[in-house]
TrEMBL record, chain A:
Keywords: Cell membrane, Membrane, Transmembrane, Transmembrane helix. Its main location: membrane. It is found in: Cell membrane. InterPro entries: ABC_transp_permease (IPR001851), LivM-like (IPR043428). It is a multi-pass membrane protein. One of its GO terms (cellular component) is plasma membrane. The chain crosses the membrane at residues 81-100, 107-126, 156-174, 244-267, 279-297. GO terms for molecular function: branched-chain amino acid transmembrane transporter activity. This is Branched-chain amino acid ABC transporter permease.
From TrEMBL, chain B:
It comes from Fertoeibacter niger. Keywords: Amino-acid transport, ATP-binding, Nucleotide-binding, Transport. Signal peptide: none annotated. One of its GO terms (biological process) is L-amino acid transport. Residues 2-231 form the ABC transporter domain. This is ABC transporter ATP-binding protein. The keyword Hydrolase does not apply. PROSITE patterns: ABC_TRANSPORTER_1, ABC_TRANSPORTER_2. GO terms for molecular function: ATP binding; ATP hydrolysis activity; branched-chain amino acid transmembrane transporter activity. InterPro entries: AAA+_ATPase, ABC_transporter-like_ATP-bd, ABC_transporter-like_CS, BCAA_Transport_ATP-bd_LivF, P-loop_NTPase.
Length: 309, 231
């Protein structure tokens, strides 16, 4: 009950923030919310199931391009958003069927190879995908049930809606039997097998759910910001969700959001005072590894807030 | 109930089990004894499908289990408590039990039955399992295996490293399980523990059962213990 109240409070706070934030931060928070959905998906695979993937940019890119290409074909948000969700899930299913035959470092490398193959495919089919430059979505396609997503409030509202649904679904998932089995699998795969669980099925299910999150985040990002580009499918977008999750706390429901928010503003603020902002980020991550290796919420949970899911 | 017949098996090119035959009967405790490296744990792992039987057969109520994928063996009705307990450390006692219950869709009645066997666990349902004492962790490991309502329970040195009061409790539990019709295979090195619960004792030497005797024919100073176990 306490944890549900906390998560609802975070959603309520984000809802209220839109009325007081200046336009610049209004857009930033909308961006952070949709990226947090991506990070939550990564957390389901990595934080809860122990799947260290370097291929999530492919799932994000699948959602992004599914929505973007459909938008180019004249479809609106009501069709492109679910299409992005589905694309992320289907690509995760296909990758998982093959990559989950491996484990550990091999899994990391295989997922990275899939993501790079996806990235190069986008570049190769430049006439369709826009190649390196990408493409801008037509204004008419950035419409969701009559709301123009190019304007501030509908954009923020879509980001918040995606975030809220993803967060509460994540909370329900980790409290469900499947969530418990995912954690069991992360903790000891062999022991889980000895209790009758098929590791392949459990991990594939987690990866597909993770892909659905990444896909819908990609589609949401395309619609909210009106741009689709190959850089979103590059390796950087496989590493970023991992950093957000590690910073916020792997295996915590709110950790990915906290991590994405802090990292976003750390880069934003440090880049306004120095060109060496990557170094600032590096130092912050180093401090994290040294003083809070379980991430911010992971450390808080360890040090007293044991009820944090 | 569970019958192993001429089972070979091992790790890679290293053969550990050599034509091993053993039977576990309903409501009985079959103790397996032998020196280190004799193949006791490998025997349990072979039953669970973690070590492939390269020859021979393992059947449960006449159905072959040696060719099942490892995760299907528990569903067939075989519970396993490995050496060293291996709990899901960050999970609470209640969550560990829940994970055990879900495999075969068992519910509140099974949970109550298991907690009745281990009242101490009921008092610690919300406690993170890695913070339990060694004895309590062993209870939880056994409880979680019992959540499957197994026909056969495999216990690998459950009293190892426990204080006497906990050993007595584990012994009582194993004895209580006999009444429920569960066939237990207990790998154990302590002669007193074996003699207090066993119906039959199988001595394993070099990956095969050298001799099986009814427990009532054995005393603490029986020559078999010195010959096969070295105690």
């Amino acid at each position: 009950m306490k944890s549900l109240a906390l998560h609802l409070a975070v959603i309520a706070l984000l809802f209220a923030l839109q009325f007081v934030l200046p336009p610049y931060h209004h857009t930033n928070i909308a961006r952070v919310m949709v990226l947090a959905v991506f990070a939550m998906g990564y957390n389901i695979a990595f934080g809860y199931t122990g799947l260290l993937s370097l291929g999530h940019a492919l799932f994000f890119g699948a959602g992004l391009y599914a929505a973007g290409l459909m938008a180019n074909g004249g479809w609106t948000g009501l069709a492109t958003l679910p299409a992005g969700l589905l694309a992320g899930g289907l690509v995760a299913l296909a990758v998982g069927m093959l990559a989950l035959r491996t484990a550990g470092v091999s899994f990391m490398i295989v997922t990275l190879m899939f993501a790079q193959a996806g990235y190069l495919t986008i570049l190769y089919f430049g006439p369709v995908t826009g190649g390196d430059e990408g493409f801008v979505l037509p204004a008419a396609a950035r419409n969701l049930a009559g709301f123009d997503l190019a304007t501030e409030t509908p954009r923020y509202t879509l980001g918040l809606a995606l975030f809220a649904v993803a967060l509460l679904a994540n909370l329900a998932l980790v409290r469900s039997p499947l969530g418990r089995v995912m954690v069991a699998m992360r903790e000891n795969e062999e022991r889980s097998r000895m209790l009758g669980y098929n590791p392949f099925t459990v991990k594939l299910t987690a990866l597909v759910i993770s892909g659905l999150y990444a896909g819908v985040a990609g589609a949401g990002y395309a619609l909210m910001f009106g741009y689709v580009g190959a850089s979103f499918a590059a390796i950087q977008y496989s590493i970023l969700p991992m950093l957000w999750v590690l910073l916020g706390g792997a295996g915590t429901v709110l950790g990915p959001f906290i991590g994405a928010l802090l990292m976003f503003y750390l880069i934003d603020l440090s880049s306004s005072v120095t060109t060496a902002h990557q170094m600032v980020v590096g130092v912050a991550l180093l401090a994290l590894v040294l003083f809070a290796p379980k991430g911010l919420l992971g450390t808080l949970r360890e040090r007293g807030l044991k009820w944090l899911p | 109930m569970l019958v192993l017949s001429g089972v070979d098996g091992g790790y890679g090119h290293v053969q550990v089990l050599r034509g091993l035959s053993l039977e576990a009967r309903a409501g009985e405790v079959t103790c397996v004894m032998g020196r280190n490296g004799a193949g006791k744990t490998t025997l349990l792992r072979a039953i669970m499908g973690q070590v492939r039987a390269t020859a021979g057969s393992i059947t449960l109520d006449g159905q072959a289990v040696h060719d099942l994928p490892a995760h299907e063996v528990p569903r067939a009705g075989i519970g396993y408590v490995p050496q060293g307990r291996r709990l899901f450390g960050p999970m609470t006692v209640a969550e560990n039990i829940e994970v055990g219950l879900m495999t075969r869709g068992k519910g509140a009645a099974t949970r109550e039955h298991v907690l009745a066997l281990f009242p101490r666990l009921r008092e610690r349902l919300g406690q993170v399992s890695s913070t339990l004492s060694g004895g309590e962790q062993q209870m939880l490991a056994i409880a979680r295996a019992l959540c499957l309502e197994p026909k056969v329970l495999l216990l690998d040195e459950p009293t190892e490293g426990l204080q006497p009061s906990m050993i007595a409790l584990i012994r009582e539990t194993v004895t209580a399980l006999k009444a429920t019709g569960v066939a237990t295979i207990l790998v154990e090195q302590r002669v007193d523990a074996v003699l207090s619960v066993a119906d039959r004792v199988a001595f394993v030497v070099g990956g095969t059962v050298a001799e099986t005797l009814p427990a009532e024919e054995l005393t603490a100073d029986a020559p078999q213990f010195r010959q096969y176990v070295g105690v």
